[in-house]
């Protein structure tokens, strides 16, 4: 079992015929993802990458039965694309777009409140269930199927964690890149919860960064579950100065609790195996599994 996406997912691409959408859709198709079509307003009725193009998400859902979408729409229109997908009944929305105006995301997130939809992103690398479906921009060859889940704010650290896990002789159940913007659809806690409830995920890698309280909330949740699955954690931005944004829009130290050191302290207090460097993730996971008596 996986979370969010698998071999049965029917995926459409919003912004299908643009350069980014075309490139990554092709990569997803080559990986084996079931891409059933795409959406580009005004180009409905044509084909692209041997897949049908539709004018609206509603048309795409009606014709293909799509239940997952990935969004490569320019920032000014991306929030509308998210809301359109939710309106059409898409269950999982993966928004890759970076730089969506905050006020637009406030409106989009509020719009999704009472809808049966999971939004991943924006400003994220996507979601991958190795060997089944890649709905995102991650390098698929890094990921090998297994029983370790990954939740990460950072795109590149998602890949690094996967590489460390695979080199340690383990594999990945599902990796979720939640995105680094101040307002995202699925905070760390929610993504960790999905993997914590997945019977085919034995342990979790949780990667955070400076700024916000997502990691603290997730850590508290993990503690409240009785630490039923081993969690290895890492926080990026250990040398970041206060008040300066580092990389992601949400990565800024606004107070004492936003620092990497403060987050790592909270994580340790909640029973998470915290590493000082991403290079230690693989070894730490092997040790955590051994201590929990789990045979990988």
Task: Considering the chains and any ligands shown, give keywords for the structure.
296 residues, alpha/beta, Rossmann fold, 2 domains, seven-stranded mixed sheet, 9 helices, globular, succinate-CoA ligase (GDP-forming) activity, succinate-CoA ligase (ADP-forming) activity, tricarboxylic acid cycle
Description:
Belongs to the succinate/malate CoA ligase alpha subunit family. Its EC number is 6.2.1.5. With 296 residues, this protein is of the alpha/beta class. The protein has two domains: 123 residues, NAD(P)-binding Rossmann-like Domain (Rossmann fold, 3-Layer(aba) Sandwich); 158 residues, 3-Layer(aba) Sandwich (Rossmann fold), CATH 3.40.50. α5 links the parallel β10 and β11.
Given the structure, what is the number of helices?
Answer: 9
Helix content: 25-40%
Q: What fraction of residues sit in β-strands?
A: 15-25%
> Low-confidence segments, ≥5 residues, pLDDT <50?
none
Average the pLDDT over all residues and give the rounded result: 94
Strand arrangement in the largest pleated sheet: 3-4-2-1-5-6-7
Shape: globular
CATH topology of the largest domain: Rossmann fold
Query: What is the tally of beta strands?
Result: 14
- What is the helix/strand order? EHEEEHEHEHEEEEHEHEHEHEH
Whole-number count of domains: 2
Radius of gyration (CA) equals 19 Å
Report the end-to-end length measured between terminal Cα atoms.
16 Å
CATH class categorisation of the largest domain:
Alpha Beta
Category from helices, strands and their pairing? alpha/beta
């Amino acid at each position: 079992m996986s979370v969010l996406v698998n071999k049965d997912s029917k995926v459409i691409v919003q912004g299908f015929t643009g350069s980014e959408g075309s490139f990554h859709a092709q990569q997803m198709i080559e990986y084996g993802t079931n891409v059933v079509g795409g959406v580009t307003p005004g180009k409905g009725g044509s084909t692209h990458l041997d897949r049908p193009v539709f004018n609206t998400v509603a048309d795409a859902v009606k014709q293909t039965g799509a239940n997952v979408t990935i969004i490569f729409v320019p920032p000014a229109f991306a929030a509308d694309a998210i809301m359109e997908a939710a309106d059409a009944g898409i269950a999982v929305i993966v928004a890759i777009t970076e730089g969506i105006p905050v006020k637009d995301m406030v409106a989009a997130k509020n719009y999704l409140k009472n809808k049966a939809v999971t939004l991943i992103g924006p400003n994220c690398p996507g979601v991958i269930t190795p060997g089944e479906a890649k709905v995102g921009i991650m390098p698929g060859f890094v990921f090998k199927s297994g029983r370790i889940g990954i939740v990460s704010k950072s795109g590149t650290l998602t890949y690094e964690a996967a590489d460390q896990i695979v080199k340690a002789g383990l594999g990945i159940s599902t990796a979720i890149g939640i995105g680094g913007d101040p307002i995202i659809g699925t905070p760390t806690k929610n993504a960790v919860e999905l993997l914590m409830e997945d019977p085919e995920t034995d342990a979790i890698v949780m990667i955070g960064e400076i700024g916000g309280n997502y990691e603290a909330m997730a850590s508290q949740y993990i503690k409240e579950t009785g630490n039923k699955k081993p969690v290895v954690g890492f926080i990026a931005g250990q040398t970041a100065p206060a008040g300066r944004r580092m990389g992601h829009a949400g990565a800024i130290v606004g107070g004492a609790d936003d620092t990497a050191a403060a987050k790592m302290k909270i994580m340790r207090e909640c029973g998470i195996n915290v590493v000082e460097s991403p290079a230690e993730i693989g070894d730490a996971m092997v040790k955590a599994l051994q201590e929990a008596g789990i045979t990988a």
